[in-house]
């Protein structure tokens, strides 16, 4: 079955504006849901997860049987390479932002930190989340999708108001 994702009025010109890493992390911290990308059996794997920012690091909950827990448990030194993506794109106007953070992930082992993350991270599914993974970004990129304004200038706000 084919879906037509094109909506009337959504084809107006858009401008993609690159965000600096500080603004990209700020936007990432303004939402609670994202996607973590890691390797499973030598293939890219994507999982929808919720997160919090902690001092520039992205922290997510997981559970003992999860692929991500197994993957990060193998980490030594810096951890294992992952990517994390979050966005807020309006489905009607196609305006908003997208951020990708690439870095190293490892399991959080400190009991005090784990207890704190249990209080601040609220899983969206009914499942025990007894582990936490910390992603330390090495590269943070982002883009803002905005309307093209008159005379070649753009309005950087997602609504373009």
What topology emerges from the helices and strands here?
Elements: E1 14-19, H1 21-28, E2 33-40, E3 43-54, E4 57-62, H2 67-73, E5 80-89, E6 96-107, H3 111-120, E7 131-147
Antiparallel strand pairs: 1-7, 2-3, 2-5, 3-4, 4-7, 5-6, 6-7
Percent of sequence in beta strands? 35-45%
Q: How far apart, in Å, are the first and last alpha carbons?
A: 37 Å
Average the pLDDT over all residues and give the rounded result.
85
What is the number of helices? 3
Described by the principal axes of the CA atoms, the overall outline is elongated
> What is the spatial order of strands in the main beta sheet?
2-3-4-7-6-5
Structural class: alpha+beta
Number of strands: 7
Main sheet overview: 6 strands, antiparallel, barrel
User: What oligomerization state is this entry in?
Assistant: single chain
Helix percentage range: 10-25%
Order of helices and strands: EHEEEHEEHE
Rg from Cα: 18 Å
Low-confidence stretches: 150-155
Plain-language structure description:
Strand 3 and strand 4 form a beta hairpin. With 161 residues, the protein is an alpha+beta fold. It is elongated, with a radius of gyration of 18 Å. It is built from three helices and seven strands; from the N terminus they run βαβββαββαβ. It has a six-stranded antiparallel barrel with strand order 2-3-4-7-6-5. 25% of the residues are buried.
Offer a few descriptive terms.
161 residues, alpha+beta, 44% strand, elongated
What's the gist of this structure?
The protein has helices spanning 21-28, 67-73, 111-120, and strands at residues 14-19, 33-40, 43-54, 57-62, 80-89, 96-107, 131-147. The chain has 161 residues and is an alpha+beta fold. A six-stranded antiparallel β-barrel has the order 2-3-4-7-6-5.
